[in-house]
């Protein structure tokens, strides 16, 4: 492409989300011979995070720091983004397809009167064309899209495009841009987090998920132990959430989070099509269920027919032994 691409990174609790580095890798793949500029918004000192984006492949970074950017609001972040876009005038913009990305990018696209390709899972460069692959019909089919004119604007699904190796010998300018963030119609008074501590579910490389088969809130404890040993996160089907076994922040599926981890372990999940829509593109799927006819086995790479309360603790113990002997 040989032009300029802008990557909008995402900062949470003072740290960069991994999808920010994946977005840089996507931009570098599209624009191998051109310039990749990172943009970060927030409160406080963001210069070091700007350097981190450079270590992962960006050529330089622009940071906008303002007290009204401490917490995400679509209006505040859109003001910051538009100011950077007007300054940089990029040929393309890339961002992660996260809760923030899904909210912010349509607003920017509307103001720029631009098209937007959302939730891309793969990118191919074919001559002058950049071909984006994205799932449709709840992941049952895929479509390929090409921007024929105007701005190349896309969001990428986390865990699908590998970040580049970190290289702390890379250097580039980190510019601090002053933007007046004003007239906000939304004021964040307080944030109450319901997500579990530890690994972010949407970016987890390993997920251990429970369905109605866990039978109770206590039934998630063996799953939590297995997830901890694997360095992963715990998720749930809507059935488990509806039954009150866990919070809806853990829900994976058509009306919950869409995840694509390297390893997905489904425990006591029957495999309703709505749940499969949220996890069927996981790289390796392991299903544990007492019912050999459960639909989850149709998408699983490995299946274990058995009681999850017997199988999961055994798996946890064996993995602990393997790690101790490694």
Automatic annotation (TrEMBL):
UniProt key word Transport: yes
GO BP annotations listed: fatty acid beta-oxidation using acyl-CoA dehydrogenase
SMART domains, A to Z: ETF
Cofactor: FAD
InterPro entries: DHS-like_NAD/FAD-binding_dom (IPR029035), ETF_a/b_N (IPR014730), ETF_a/FixB (IPR001308), ETF_alpha_N (IPR033947), ETF_asu_C (IPR014731), ETF_asu_C_CS (IPR018206), Rossmann-like_a/b/a_fold (IPR014729)
Binding site for FAD: 212, 237-238, 251-255, 268-275, 289
Keyword line: Electron transport, FAD, Flavoprotein, Transport
Cofactor binding annotation: Binds 1 FAD per dimer.
Entry coiled-coil feature ranges: none
Any GO molecular function: electron transfer activity
Location of the Electron transfer flavoprotein alpha/beta-subunit N-terminal domain: 5-196
Pfam families tied to this protein: ETF, ETF_alpha
Family: Belongs to the ETF alpha-subunit/FixB family.
Designated name of the protein: Electron transfer flavoprotein alpha subunit apoprotein
Lineage: Bacteria, Bacillati, Bacillota, Bacilli, Bacillales
């Amino acid at each position: 492409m040989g032009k300029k691409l802008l990557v909008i990174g995402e900062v949470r609790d003072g740290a960069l989300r991994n999808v920010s580095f994946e977005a840089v890798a996507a931009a570098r793949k599209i624009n191998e011979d051109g310039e990749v500029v990172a943009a970060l918004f927030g409160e406080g000192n963001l210069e070091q995070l700007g350097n981190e984006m450079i270590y992962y492949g960006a050529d330089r970074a622009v940071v906008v720091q303002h007290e009204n950017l401490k917490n995400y609001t679509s209006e505040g972040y859109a003001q910051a983004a538009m100011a950077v876009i007007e300054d940089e005038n990029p040929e393309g913009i890339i961002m992660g397809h996260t809760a923030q990305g899904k909210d912010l990018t349509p607003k920017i696209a509307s103001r720029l009167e631009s098209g937007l390709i959302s939730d891309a899972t793969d990118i191919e460069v074919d001559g002058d064309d950049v071909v984006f692959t994205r799932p449709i019909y709840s992941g049952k089919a895929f479509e390929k899209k090409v921007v024929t004119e105007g701005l190349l604007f896309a969001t990428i699904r986390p865990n699908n495009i590998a970040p580049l190796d970190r290289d702390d010998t890379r250097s580039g300018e980190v510019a601090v841009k002053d933007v007046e963030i004003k007239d906000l119609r939304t004021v964040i008074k307080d944030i109450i987090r319901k997500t579990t501590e530890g690994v972010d579910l949407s970016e987890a490389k390993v997920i251990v998920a429970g369905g109605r088969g866990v039978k109770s809130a206590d039934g998630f404890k063996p799953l939590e132990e297995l997830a901890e040993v694997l360095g992963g996160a715990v998720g749930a089907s809507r059935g488990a959430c509806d039954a009150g076994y866990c919070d809806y922040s853990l829900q994976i599926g058509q009306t919950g989070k869409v995840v694509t981890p390297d390893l997905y372990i489904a425990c006591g999940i029957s495999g309703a099509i709505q749940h499969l829509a949220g996890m069927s593109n996981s790289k390796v799927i392991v299903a544990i269920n007492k019912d050999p006819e459960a639909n989850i086995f149709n998408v699983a790479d490995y299946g274990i027919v058995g009681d999850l309360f017997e199988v999961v603790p055994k798996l946890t113990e064996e993995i602990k032994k393997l790690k101790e002997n490694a």
